[in-house]
Write a structure and sequence with these properties.
mainly alpha, two-stranded antiparallel sheet, 37% helix
């Protein structure tokens, strides 16, 4: 949905409400300038709930983004999906099914940009100043990584397909959700 409605090179200035989120964050800062591509990278590689909020705000706000997400899911035939938050964290009325997740993931992977981002190992991610540089110990910027944190690639059938870390994967595997800079799998 973001890919259909926003230009990847459009610049978004992070607002204070973007970073006031539960769960994992990519590390955007209020006043920092980020391209839509950078926000997508933070969302997909790092389960960045802060970047999900910034993208939703850019799409017209959280209620408008949730409505658009619901409409897109319905259009694609994901009829059991009712988003309750833009980040994928639990929210009021939220539900989905394994079938819907497969439908949505299959459609997402048809997009060359999404495929590129989820297949990326590491990208420099800007801090609040908007200056991209690789992470330095103790700095406000870091590399957002899509590491094979569980060492599953090549050992587990299907593990070569990258997925977003967090509650969805945790529920599917029965484990805890991730909030670290590693993602994919």
């Amino acid at each position: 949905m973001v890919r259909e409605r926003l230009d990847l090179d459009a610049v978004v200035v992070a607002a204070p409400e973007d970073v006031q989120v539960d769960g994992s964050r990519a590390g955007i800062g209020p006043g920092g300038s980020y391209t839509v591509r950078q926000l997508l990278a933070g969302l997909l590689l790092n389960s960045g709930n802060d970047t999900a909020n910034a993208l939703a705000r850019t799409l017209g706000g959280v209620p408008a983004a949730l409505e658009a997400m619901q409409a897109k899911a319905s259009t694609l035939g994901a009829l059991d999906t009712r988003p309750g938050s833009v980040s994928g964290l639990d929210g009021p009325g939220m539900s989905t099914s394994a079938y819907d997740l497969a439908v949505l993931f299959r459609v997402a992977l048809r997009d060359p940009t999404i495929r590129e981002l989820v297949g990326t190992r590491s990208v420099p991610f800007p801090g609040a100043t908007g200056l991209p540089r690789l992470a330095q110990p103790g700095s406000a910027t870091r590399a957002t990584e899509n590491a094979d944190s569980r060492g599953l690639r090549g050992r587990l059938p299907g593990a070569e397909i990258p997925t977003r870390e967090g509650k969805t994967r945790a529920r599917l595997s029965g484990g805890e959700g991730g909030g670290a800079v590693s993602g994919g799998g």
